[in-house]
Every structure is written in structure tokens, then in C-alpha cells.
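Shipment paperwork, digital attachment
Item: protein structure file
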Amino acid sequence: MLKIGELARISGLHAQTIRNYEQQSLLKPAARSETGQHRLYRAEEVARLQFIRQANLAGLTLREVKELLALIEGGQRGENFPRVREALEKNIRQTEQKIELLSAFRDSLLSYRWRFEEKKDQGQL
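Attachment content:
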């Protein structure tokens, strides 16, 4: 079991971010310490935090992440599999579109960098 500080260190997130995720019902401590003073998390929560972080970076709101996680958990219990599959497919398509947009933006940035380097090499800057 991990205390919140350990979970924060391993996941690369701030403890306050983890508390916020807990308040948003995205994460739940497995237990409390014997004194009740510390939240305790399973090591599996690191993967959940990484998923939340990745989804958020991909543009999903915390509400959307929460809905997606609920669907996934339901699907793992055998509930409403067609809806889970549909939601996952939708998110996969959206992610692929974002990857294409980011790749095009990266190409533009590289082009600008090349132009400035070329001007610098020619003494125009």
C-alpha cells in the first residue's frame, strides 16, 4: 500500500492533484492507515493515474475521463459491452485525429525552425 506522497512521487503528479482526482471520484484510496491519518492506495492506482493524465493531455475533460473509466470498469464486469466498445472506438478515432493534427503542427514548427536556422547561417539575422 502506498501513501499519497509515495503515489505522487511514483506517478509524477502532485499530491494535491491526486486529492483533486479523489474529490472528482476518479480515484479512491483502498484504505486508511491504522490511525486514519493517511490515505493508502494500491500500486495499481499508478496505472489509473497515468491513464487519467494521458486522457487529460489528449483533451478529455475530467468529467469525460470519469465517464470513460466508469464504462471501462462496467465492461470489465461484463456490463453493457456494446456501449463500452463504442465509447472506446470513439476515443480511439478522436485520439488518432489529434495525433494527425499534432504531427502537422510539429511539421510546421520544424519548417519555421529550419527557415530561421537558414537565415542565421546566411547572416540575415
